[in-house]
Write a structure and sequence with these properties.
Elements (H helix, E strand, L loop, with lengths): L3 E8 L3 E5 L18 E4 L6 E7 L6 E3 L11 E12 L4 E11 L2 E9 L8 E9 L4 H4 L15 H11 L12
Antiparallel strand pairs: 1-4, 1-8, 2-3, 3-9, 4-5, 5-6, 6-7, 6-9, 7-8
Length: 175
């Protein structure tokens, strides 16, 4: 039986660069991220539920039929983990997922581990490149009694320990 996992996400159109090299561009994948670019979540941005279904091999994930967002059946890859920091010092760690259809990027999603504040500028402070298999290696279990923005400590520690094997700004290996 294929496993299903829910993620609370924002789309790339809801988060754009307001200062920096990518000024005016929406959030994108690791190849186009630059440290110190400042992102702002739009004032009326509402998160959505992205539901992913793992294929039998566990190496690929697709948008599940019960997902509130995304093209059902489209492949979704974990692109990277990022850290954003506001001027007030709020740190937001997040995962960037890429939805692909017929070899083309259709959507970029950001799944934050903490609540993001609308209309607050946050600078990209780290970018950890992860292999596509990372999503399979981490179990993201969020009990219903907890905020959808919080992951269990064990999941966060797994991400941190895996992230230590990759230095910021390294290029991924060809698979």
């Amino acid at each position: 039986m294929a496993s299903v996992q829910n993620f609370t996400v924002y789309t790339s159109a809801q988060l754009s660069v307001v200062q920096g090299l990518n000024y005016g561009d929406p959030l994108s994948g690791k190849a186009d991220l630059y440290l110190d670019d400042c992102y702002r979540l739009k004032a009326k941005a509402q998160p959505a539920r992205l539901t992913l279904r793992a294929e039998a091999s566990g190496r690929r994930h697709r948008v599940a039929p019960q997902s509130a967002i995304g093209a059902i059946g489209a492949a979704v890859y974990l692109d990277c983990q990022i850290t954003l920091m506001s001027e007030a010092g709020q740190i937001v760690d997040a995962l960037i997922f890429i939805e692909v259809e017929l070899g083309e990027i259709k959507q970029v999603y950001l799944s934050a581990f903490e609540t993001m504040q609308p209309d607050t500028e946050s600078a990209l402070s780290t970018r950890l490149i992860q292999a596509n298999w990372l999503i399979s290696a981490i179990q993201f279990s969020i009990p219903a009694r907890k905020s959808p923005w919080r992951m269990e400590a064990s999941a966060l520690s797994k991400i941190s320990s895996l992230g230590r094997r990759f230095s910021p700004m390294t290029l991924p290996s060809k698979e």
